[in-house]
Amino acid sequence: MKKILMMLVHGYQRFISPLFPPTCRYYPTCSNYMLTALKKHGAFKGTIMGIARILRCHPFVRGGYDPVPDHFTIFRNKSARDEYRKTMHLK
């Protein structure tokens, strides 16, 4: 199941995503986040995490660095974001 979902995301990245301008507010992009979540957490939890990330990606969010956490959660990885900002000397 995980491989099928990953093939769907790769298909999106190759055929659908190039048709639209880049608008993802996070790094890594939502599709890369989904692939990493599927690899780390499996088909069920990875899909839930990816969908939660896509729902968080809208014009009213600040965005920024948000890697896939090592433990399952549908919330943003704030500790990694704060650590990244600290190392880059950002606010």
From TrEMBL:
<protein>
    <recommendedName>
        <fullName>Putative membrane protein insertion efficiency factor</fullName>
    </recommendedName>
</protein>
<comment type="similarity">
    <text>Belongs to the UPF0161 family.</text>
</comment>
<dbReference type="InterPro" id="IPR002696">
    <property type="entry name" value="Membr_insert_effic_factor_YidD"/>
</dbReference>
<comment type="function">
    <text>Could be involved in insertion of integral membrane proteins into the membrane.</text>
</comment>
<keyword id="KW-1003">Cell membrane</keyword>
<keyword id="KW-0472">Membrane</keyword>
<dbReference type="Pfam" id="PF01809">
    <property type="entry name" value="YidD"/>
</dbReference>
